[in-house]
Amino acid sequence: MKHLVLAAGLLGATAAYADTPELIVYTYDSFVSDWGPGPAVEKAFEATCGCDLKLVGAGDGAGLLARVKLEGARSDADVVLGLDTNLTAAAKATGLFADHSVSADYALPFAWEDATFAPYDWGYFAFVHKAGMDAPANFAELAESDLKIVIQDPRSSTPGLGLLMWVKTAYGDKAPEIWDGLADNVLTVTKGWSEAYGLFLEGEADMVLSYTTSPAYHLIAEEDDSKAAAVFDEGHYMHVEVAGKLATSDQPELAEQFLAFMVSDAFQSIIPTTNWMYPAVTPADGLPKGFETLVAPEKSLLLSEDEAAALRDVALDEWLTALSR
Amino acid sequence: MADCAQPLRSRWGLGVAAVVAALILGALAAVVWRAEVGRGLGFADWAAIRFTVMQAVLSAVVSVVLAVPVARALARRRFPGRRFLIALMGAPFILPVIVAILGILAVFGRSGWLSDLLGLFGFEPVQIYGLHGVVLAHVFFNLPLATRLILQGWQEIPAERFRLAAQINADSRAMWQLLEAPMLRQVVPGALAVVFAICLSSFAVALTLGGGPRATTIELAIYQAFRFDFDLGRAAMLSGVQLLLTGGAALVALRVATGEGFGAGLDRPVRRWDGRGSFALVADAICIIGAAVFLLLPLSAIVIAGLPGLVSMGASVWWAAVYSTLIAGVSTLVLLAVALPMAVAVALGRGGLVELSGLLGLAVSPLVIGTGLFILIYPVADPFALALPVTAVVNALMSLPFALRILIPRVREVLARYGRLSLSLDMRGGVFLRRVLLPRLRPQIGFAAGLAAALSMGDLGVIALFADSETATLPLQIYRLMGAYRMEAASGGALLLLCLSMGAFYILDRGGRRHAET
């Protein structure tokens, strides 16, 4: 009956949660949806915190940051969950975030040292294709092939920006040449991940920019093993998703408690089959069956947040120049 | 004063127009107010502006040029299912962009039906990505709207005129010169301006089918300014450019649209005696069948893709459908409350500014309106609690330009025809409204309401900024399903949306046409 309560709230009535403290977490849209981790996370946290957890969806990672900037110090949010390492420098620059004291035995391919943001999941960007296809082994081979790829626009999408960083990290000053070679393979560029993945599933393109964990969804949720991710030998750029608490939070203890909960087993075991990413801390029962079939890149690429912030505009210009010709 | 000799006054309309303008320009001003000094418009922004204008001009011209013969054919012919076809043709316009794109690609894409067919004869698959793909998609969206707007022009020619033309034995060509061409000179500029304005704010269509960053539009540049650079000043500046372009197009359209109108008739059903030759018959058949095939194939692809997903959608999608219907209902009421007085004011000769403020809803980017309202509402109220009303109001503003185009000609005609008579009977204000204007305006009100309801149902624009996790509209829920890999359920949601929008449109449009000529 939650919906009716909500509808009543819209008509001017106030919610009757007076005694229960409320923790407001801003996150991206797919996290809060019925098919994402949101509902299970809310239930698990509310069972321990004696509070009301309110998850608020605000577009994607970049939209989330824009929202927090827009609201500034007056924001109602206590925690922001869903930024990635390409955005954390800008997030810190706002001065809105406070340091956390979370520590955990992270299952990341590198040591995590960030006083402000704590990771909750991660994955590798990768090109997903139909299983059985002879996939290229790196960007150079992809550029030489006739394969058609769909990518996302870095100006409007987090994975799109991730791909820019991937090519930039792997090739440095040679990135423009790689993009020149790839230009005729790019079938089209979409606003966001959903559109691109939709086009791929419709059979428009041979490969789509997604994650190495994408085939796990098809395998586990649909019992369909027809999708695979291509392993590139120059390494794969990582997408590390993080959360932090706001300095202006009126529930600082509860926010800290949420961040600690976020790296606990209860939260982490929800992630693999709802967010379809690797959990930041391996759950006690290990990864769900099916994850062992995923390809594991030999080399992980990740820019520090300052490098990522410094390279962002350069990489965008190079990309625009190569693809606008 | 024109007002003195009329049974209605323009005060209300002027007031409402001022509120509309204040709301939209206020949102824009709020964005400017929050802006810090940004980097201004760069080379890439000018390229985006050029591309935007080019594709919008092309899309508008192609849509309207194709719509004229289709509307003419529909105006001349009566056949079973005609009414249904006209209603169905309204469907593409209200679909969420991604759904429509997938429908188009199912037909024209690299692995679409057309490519498969060509493949049987050994041809290469169709190349849809590029400027022509953008125009194709925009024609798919806007041909039906342009057809309806022009068809309405035909229907506003009084039946007596056709009777008279038939009595002097006017053939198709003479009919064209006497009645149809003058009517088109009045209607076509407005239709061009509306389609141009719609395509001006295109974003996902242009990007996805344009094939890459070459196809960057102003709207994407605004998105970039917000999300990528958080440069509110640039977003506002780009929005200003969009506003100028739409306003300019509207002014040109208003200036070009000249002509006298066709005077009074007795509201008799139109009968046509022209176009009986076999050549005309074949030509009309080609137009109607061509348009139907072009529009219905992608729609059937959406239906086919959606059927299996209908069962796997889950309760939240059905709840979202309830919200969307609720928003569409409120939005339609708001629209009528705003559009009717404005249409009266325009018809009373207070044209320019009122009509321009009506266009603002289309001219300012939804992202900017949404953000501006967010900035304005945030200090005084909880934006989430206001998500539904704000969405309903903004959706109403978006359909305002269409409603005005639909209502104004008829209001003008009714005032011209019955104004003096009513005054001599001392029928003014509310009485005139109830007894004379509204009954005669019913088909137009129905069409405008149907369009507003359907547009609101399919709109994603503002709700995305305001929605919390539980109050999501159907389009937003479809995107969420796609974001969670659940393409099949998303297709089911798209089909549900298609049915709801079509249903709302059909019921309202049909309701308005009760007793009227079909």
TrEMBL record, chain A:
It comes from the Bacteria. Gene3D superfamilies: Periplasmic binding protein-like II (3.40.190.10). GO terms for molecular function: thiamine binding; thiamine pyrophosphate binding. Keywords: Periplasm, Signal, Transport. CDD domains: PBP2_TbpA. Pfam families: SBP_bac_1. One of its GO terms (cellular component) is outer membrane-bounded periplasmic space. One of its GO terms (biological process) is thiamine transport. It is found in: Periplasm. SUPFAM superfamilies: Periplasmic binding protein-like II. Residues 1-18 form the signal peptide. InterPro entries: SBP, ThiB, ThiB-like. Coiled coil: none annotated. NCBIfam families: sfuA (TIGR01254), thiB (TIGR01276). Belongs to the bacterial solute-binding protein 1 family. This is Thiamine-binding periplasmic protein. It comes from Phaeobacter porticola. The lineage of its organism: Bacteria, Pseudomonadati, Pseudomonadota, Alphaproteobacteria, Rhodobacterales. The gene is thiB.
UniProtKB/TrEMBL annotation, chain B:
It is found in: Cell membrane. SUPFAM superfamilies: MetI-like (SSF161098). The keyword Cell wall biogenesis/degradation does not apply. Signal peptide: none annotated. Keywords: Cell membrane, Membrane, Transmembrane, Transmembrane helix, Transport. Residues 49-253, 321-508 form the ABC transmembrane type-1 domain. The chain crosses the membrane at residues 12-33, 53-75, 84-108, 128-151, 187-209, 236-258, 279-305, 317-347, 359-378, 384-408, 445-467, 487-508. It is a multi-pass membrane protein. Its main location: membrane. One of its GO terms (cellular component) is plasma membrane. The keyword Transmembrane helix applies. InterPro entries: MetI-like, MetI-like_sf. GO terms for biological process: transmembrane transport. This is Thiamine transport system permease protein ThiP. It comes from Phaeobacter porticola. The lineage of its organism: Bacteria, Pseudomonadati, Pseudomonadota, Alphaproteobacteria, Rhodobacterales. The gene is thiP.
